[in-house]
Amino acid sequence: MGHQLVIYEKEFARIERAVSQLVQAANARVVFVVDKNGQLIAASGEVDDIDTTSLASLTAGNIAATGGIANLLRENEFTTQFHEGKNAHIHIQLVKSRVILVVIFDARSSLGLVRLRVRKASEELGVIFDDIDHQAPQAQQASPFAEITDADIDNLFND
Fold this sequence. Notes:
Elements: H1 9-26, E1 30-35, E2 40-45, H2 52-72, E3 80-84, E4 89-95, E5 99-105, H3 111-141, H4 150-158
Antiparallel strand pairs: 1-2, 1-5, 3-4, 4-5
């Protein structure tokens, strides 16, 4: 990974559209996309009663912990996780080893339907994030912060 994720408006709209479509297609309560650092990228569905910031951070931690388990078992990573609760279920899918797709659903849907719809959405999101990655070198070169040094920052706060 190594570089900061920069998403432009056009790609962000594509991500939001894919997430909204997945909520409908999977009959899910909530769908969101998180980067591996725990930053929420996009969310759709019944998000008002969910602390999406905490859930995004905990999901990324879950992926990191599961990655440690995968390493112990000499696996590259586990790309799919499922947690079943009494009233809510969560399907977590790693997309292109880059972002995390999270689907929260209940009895109105089924794991089979969610997995089927997640597969299609993951492919679509993978293409979008490939497009974002292809733009990243251009964005990094144009960064206005590239020339700022630690000494410059120290001088700014010492005045």
